Structure formats: C-alpha cells, structure tokens
Amino acid sequence: MKITGNTILITGAGSGIGRALAQEFHSLGNKLIITGRRKHKLDEVLAANPGMIAYELDVQDRVAVSDFARMITAHHPTLNVVINNAGIMLQEDLSEGESALDQLDAMVQTNFLGPVRLNAALIQHLLTQIEATIINVGSGLAHVPLTLVPNYCATKAAIHSYTQSLRHQLRNSPIEVVEIIPPAVHTGLLGLDQPAPHEMPLPVFIAEVMALFHQQPTPQEICVENVGPLRHAESGDYGAVFAQVNQGIVL
C-alpha cells in the first residue's frame, strides 16, 4: 500500500483507533473520509482535522451501507482505500441462555456483516483503481478468546478467516488486502483515564502500526509486538496463553 496520495474511507472513526488512524493518514497527505454513528464525535474530529470529510453511517443497517457505497463512489471517485474499523465489544454470560444473546445481533452486524457488506458494495469500484487496499481490523482475541466476550471474539475470528479468503480471491487484482490485529489498546471506552496494565496506550500502538504501514511491501498482517503471544499462540503453548488471558492477565 502506498502511504500517501490516497482517498481513504475509515468506518467507526469518531474515536479510538479509527480516529487515531484517520489523523495519522490525514497528516501524511491523504484525503480522509470518516464515518460513525455519533455526529457529535465526527464533528469533534473534523474540528481538530480541517480538510477531513465525515458522514453518519451505521454499518448495522444493510440498506444504509449499500446506499452509502453508491453515494461515496459518486462523490469521491478516487476512493481507493477502505479501513473497516467499526466494532463493538459486549460481555455475555452464556449460562443465562437466550437472554445472554440480547446483544448478539448488534455485534455480528457491526463486527462481521458490516465490513463484509461494505467491501461487497465497494469492490467493483475498487477494482477500477490502479492501486487499492482493503484493510479489516481484527483482534488478537480472534486467536485466543477472552471468554467474558465470547461472541466479540467469534466475530473477530470470522473477520480473520474472511480476510484470508478475500486476499486469496483478489491476489491477481489491483486490490491489496491487509488485516490490522490489535492487542488490548486503551481507547477510553471503559471510562478509565489511564491504560490498565494489560492495555497498550493508544499513541504507542498507533506509532507502531504506522511504522509497519511504512514498510514496503506492506505486511499482510499489521501485528504490533504486544499481540505476538496471541497471534502465534497456536504454534506455541496455547493452553498457557489461554489461561493468562482468562485469568485477568490479558496480553
């Protein structure tokens, strides 16, 4: 992936990793289009980053995603990079039976179906670009689940599998397929001002991610050092890593 001169769309960019990525790519001279569900958050990003463009979008809404794709390619025909970042994580107690699944649809729609549908809606446009990139944001928890959030982990495992298939199917096309695989990163979602011991500070994470994006060729998987034990657990002592993650020592 070229690091500048792109028109980049990032979902879920009103805060956290999405916002930080948008700001970094914007500072490199890329045209940034950001989306999110909360207008006031998008407005905050625009105020801090003149020149960005924002649209409200709920990736859970299948019709809205399709309509958005048609609109965005018509208004921004140079769009060549899509970063599927929107995601939600919710705790579930599976012993509660059906009531434990009240939030399941929201997670599946946002974390898995949203990226799949947006990519499908944009793929024909991206194939017309000289260089294009699809970037899906996965999770280290796709590889070793945190059992407090079982279906979050399952949706991220699905994204990882889907991304591998997408990459293979597009191997002879102008579209590069990349997966960002974060460890636990402090984004303030838990209401804490300081990172928990197992969380990477967001600026540290983003700095390492951007250094990897500067590599040529771009790694197929953007894995910071902290996520290594999770990503490669299956080739090591998986049981020990699983126990660490689920005993409160989240890597």
In short:
The chain is of the alpha/beta class and 251 residues long.
Features:
alpha/beta; 251 residues; seven-stranded parallel sheet; 41% helix; two-stranded parallel sheet
Describe this structure in words.
Strands 3-2-1-4-5-6-9 form a seven-stranded parallel beta sheet, with helices on both faces. A two-stranded parallel ribbon has the order 7-8. The chain has helices at residues 16-27, 39-48, 62-75, 104-126, 150-169, 202-213, 228-231, 238-245, and strands at 7-10, 31-36, 53-56, 81-84, 132-137, 175-180, 185-186, 200-201, 221-222. The longest helix is centred in the middle third of the chain and has 23 residues, at 104-126. The chain is built from eight helices and nine strands.
Residue-averaged pLDDT: 94
Q: What string gives the helices and strands in order?
A: EHEHEHEHEHEEEHEHH
Distance between the termini: 29 Å
Structural class: alpha/beta
Number of helices in the DSSP assignment: 8
Query: Which strand-content bin applies to the residues?
Result: 5-15%
Computed over alpha carbons, the radius of gyration is 18 Å
Uncertain stretches: none
Count of individual beta strands = 9
Largest sheet: 7 strands, parallel
Q: What form results from the Cα inertia axes?
A: globular
List the strand order in the largest sheet: 3-2-1-4-5-6-9
